[in-house]
């Protein structure tokens, strides 16, 4: 647990330093999902230690809301998919760490390009179908933004997954209630996302504090126990955008904005180095 | 000159169905997906023989493209089947990000391309799909001309690793290429040798080009007909070799002249061997309802149109 806390704080520092250096990127949603991705990669997923990318015989993760690439890159590097020094190249010319994740540059750990929203759940379902055909009992995890659910393709996929009993998928929605233009309830209110998933035939697990490591572990273990039972499983992860940096919380302002020098200094002071900066 | 005949007409989509069925028996990694058009795509035999490897997606093409991309991650070779319109324009961003940019080994198989879809009209008759697909980096674009070639192409693309767009059609057309031929992606096929004009055709227009060349021959004009089944990568050497001999060219396709085969040929000629060229293609227009033959006549996509353009281009030599 202490190890997970330390890693989370280091991941926050990575996110802040990455977006600050290039004065671009998406720190808000990245910080909100730091605990989740740390738990997923460090203690939940059954992953091969060889970092092969053939997709066989291990759990797989798909990031659909690709703009939170800073947290994804940081966690992938910190668990060993590539050298943490490479985080220095985020969003730079000739980098493997593109603004949004891609397989195009061959970065280990990335299995699909994402960024244009709403496509990841379909891809995850395809990977889940392949696992079934291959008699591979591992699980497919995916992460989606709540605003992203406004894209219609999600609902094609949500309908398909329950109709076809895709029960080896655990799709998590980052419920931070915010999107670029403001609160999701102001931009396009979606009503109860829980009710929507349930009415489409999914099992739903709610994690009330999606920035609490213990709550995430408990919730995800429950989700895992519900899987392989004829129904797809959805986790509603209630997070705080900008979590861990006081001035980035309770606002959507940091969705796609980098901190300036002073703001970085303040943000890093709130998250003292734990495992060593890259 | 070499003459081509036929004893039977069949739709190219049935060639796809036959090829897919053969793949079902020979390649355990091949899977098929369809968005509620199994009968139209002739996928029944594959499904009957391999029900566990078939995915009925319903009327949800965007989801189908994403699922196909995901299936490749477990080592499968997905073949998606729906009409050309719903295989391309409707799902362009899904193909662009999840398949092309992600370099996934998906075979996008598109039936009912072009005007010959017929009576359903312009909502279903896409004439822009070759352009859309060839613009995507890394996408192979193939448009086959008859049953045998479509069957061979379907089998061949399973062996190629990477995204492919395979375009075919609805109506029964003459079978004039060899049964059990070997299909080589990107390799043009010279059908007739000629010295006066090169006719480069793809898809349903290949047979029309052969008909045109026979009539031209009777009038003393020797046409070299080349079957370009692969629009990307384009066999530019075959094109250049031919025009160096003939000095003029007509391109023929069931597609808008904007973004089609003709423009791809123009680019090669402009940069390597400027040559007078005329286009048999639709002229920046939508289609409409009608029988395939009526539509091909009205929009200038048959043997007579090819002859007209040949006469025009000969004067520009």
Summarize the structure.
Chain A has 278 residues and is α/β, with parallel strands linked by helices.
Give the topology:
The complex is a heterodimer of chains A (278) and B (317).
Chain A: H1 2-22, H2 27-32, H3 34-44, E1 60-63, H4 69-79, H5 120-133, E2 140-145, H6 153-163, E3 169-175, E4 178-179, E5 182-183, H7 184-187, H8 193-199, E6 203-207, H9 213-226, E7 233-238, H10 261-269
Parallel strand pairs in A: 1-2, 2-3, 3-7, 6-7
Antiparallel strand pairs in A: 4-5
Helix pairs in contact in A: 1-3, 1-4, 1-10, 3-4, 3-9, 5-6
Chain B: E1 9-11, H1 12-26, E2 30-34, H2 38-41, H3 44-49, E3 54-56, H4 61-73, E4 77-83, H5 84-87, H6 92-101, E5 107-111, H7 129-134, E6 140-143, H8 147-159, E7 164-167, E8 172-174, E9 189-190, E10 197-201, H9 205-218, E11 223-227, E12 230-232, H10 236-246, E13 249-256, H11 261-272, E14 277-282, H12 292-298, H13 303-315
Parallel strand pairs in B: 2-3, 2-4, 4-5, 5-7, 6-7, 10-11, 10-13, 13-14
Antiparallel strand pairs in B: 1-8, 6-12, 9-11
Helix pairs in contact in B: 1-8, 4-6, 9-13
